[in-house]
Amino acid sequence: MQIFSENLLANQVAIVTGGGTGIGKQIAKTLGESGAKVVIAGRRKEVLEETRNEFVKEGIETHAISIDIRVPEQVQQLVDFTVGSFGKVDILVNNAGGQFPKKSEELTPNGWNAVIHNNLNGTFYVTQAVAKQMIKQGTGGAITNILVSFLHRGAPGIAHSVAARNGVYGMMRTLALEWAKYNIRINSIGPGLFVTEGMKEEMASSAGPHFIEQVTQDVPLGRTGRLQELGWLVTYLSCPAAEYMTGEFIVIDGGNSLGRGLTFVPY
Ligand SMILES: CCCCCCCCCCC/C=C/C(=O)SCCNC(=O)CCNC(=O)[C@H](O)C(C)(C)COP(=O)(O)OP(=O)(O)OC[C@H]1O[C@@H](n2cnc3c(N)ncnc32)[C@H](O)[C@@H]1OP(=O)(O)O
Ligand SMILES: NC(=O)C1=CN([C@@H]2O[C@H](COP(=O)(O)OP(=O)(O)OC[C@H]3O[C@@H](n4cnc5c(N)ncnc54)[C@H](OP(=O)(O)O)[C@@H]3O)[C@@H](O)[C@H]2O)C=CC1
User: Fold this and answer.
1) Which of 50, 66, 144, 263 lies at 20 to 30 Å from 122 by C-alpha?
2) Which UniProt keywords apply (predicted)?
């Protein structure tokens, strides 16, 4: 279903980290279907090339680059590659990230650091490098971070990830203030459960075969999210309709983070 005009983001250039798979792939596709030129970035070259070929067949102007967001020099290569390919960058989606479930008392310092480094440091490196380019261009920009729905509530088994995402949240609020004068807006999205291969692999070892059904039972809207719904939300945040929004965190989880609700109802 095409919700937005196919010219909405014409002449806009978007970078999507982790754009070769899952949520990032769908976000990049939806931005492309609204007219944006897209650069997808991740570590696995073959996966990126496969996605790029798919997009190009669909008429989306796409380039792909293999980089690790944890390595500042490679992050700069991503920005240079984007500017070299499409002349500028207007939209950034910080989607690359993830974690592994582990009881906190069993987490090793390396395990903790690995997740903090990827989700917090990596996101900062990309955000800073892209924003410097946007400041140089002088035409503003829209940055969206993909975080998690349980940011403020907490989630047993993934303390490292919740800590890192809250770090990104704090960073976002501060950068929204610092960069408003450049008309660079920065917002975040908190997805609930969206079925992707990455999510299934991550949960496979610890959560058991019925994980998805169990989580879905707690979702008032009674289903998992559709990837397209995240694509639309990022498109909205990246387009002129959201020009007055910055520093915000939007949860999209079918009501899951409301919990089970009150047991007492007055009717
Ligand atoms: C959870 C309850 C929620 C209830 C309701 C929820 C509704 C929404 C649920 C949605 C949850 C979110 C889903 C997603 O995020 S989907 C995304 C899926 N993709 C991923 O998560 C990718 C995960 N992987 C990575 O990002 C990287 O592999 C990672 C950063 C984790 C590690 O990379 P790195 O290359 O640095 O790792 P090393 O191999 O060098 O290891 C470093 C140390 O980390 C330990 N480690 C790494 N992986 C694991 C693992 N799978 N299990 C245990 N430990 C791991 C590793 O052992 C090293 O430590 P040591 O040296 O001490 O051994
Ligand atoms: N699916 C879900 O229910 C939810 C997902 N999220 C978050 O959404 C994002 C996407 O998740 P999803 O699509 O499900 O899972 P994926 O595992 O498919 O997505 C993770 C993507 O990030 C890339 N990536 C990870 N680390 C790096 C790195 N250091 N440098 C460059 N790229 C990297 C991966 O590519 P590669 O391995 O090739 O580098 C991959 O494309 C993640 O941040 C996840 O935590 C949040 C809430 C719920």
Assistant:
1) 50
2) Fatty acid biosynthesis, Fatty acid metabolism, Lipid biosynthesis, Lipid metabolism, NADP, Oxidoreductase, Peroxisome, Phosphoprotein
